[in-house]
Amino acid sequence: MADDALRARLRRRLDDSPFWTFLGMELVEVAEGFARVRLTLRPELRNSFGIMHGGALGALVDSAGGLAVLSTGVDGPIPTVEYSLNFLAPVDAGAVTAEGRLLRRGRRIAVSEVTVTDEAGRLIAKGLVTNLIAEEPR
User: Fold this and answer.
1) How does 60-77 read in b/e, with b if 16+ C-beta sit within 10 Å?
2) Residue range 35-88, pLDDT digits in tens
3) What's the CA angle centered on 51, arms 94 and 112, to 5 degrees?
4) Domain spans of the chain?
5) Pairing relation of β-strands 123-132 and 80-87?
6) What letter does residue 137 receive in the DSSP assignment?
7) What is the SS3 assignment for 19?
8) What is the homologous superfamily of the domain 3-132 according to CATH?
């Protein structure tokens, strides 16, 4: 699938996601088996210590991993069955970028690795996302 067509297909799916819109995530780049997503820190995403909340980073990682799966032509539901996330550095300003790379897609399970960096290229978090490739509802 051409990158423009792929991006348009994923953009339509993201436009239907109120959570995606609420968090303010931005699809930066997509190719087969790869997705780059950006999230800018704003007051609503800070925790009580003034840094980006881990839940916001978790949602970013989950989204980048899922988009890497969707970029392979999957069109149905892909619920996350598990993700792990290691927080390596705090985010107190600016934007972070998550790069999701598909490691393996089977018939029913897909696994992606996600790396999150800040604007200076500093490693912020590392995640592993497992999605179920669900059958279309009948």
Assistant:
1) bbbbbbbbbbbbeeeeee
2) 999 999 999 999 999 999 999 999 999 999 999 999 999 988 999 999 999 999
3) 75
4) 3-132
5) antiparallel
6) P
7) helix
8) Hotdog Thioesterase (3.10.129.10)
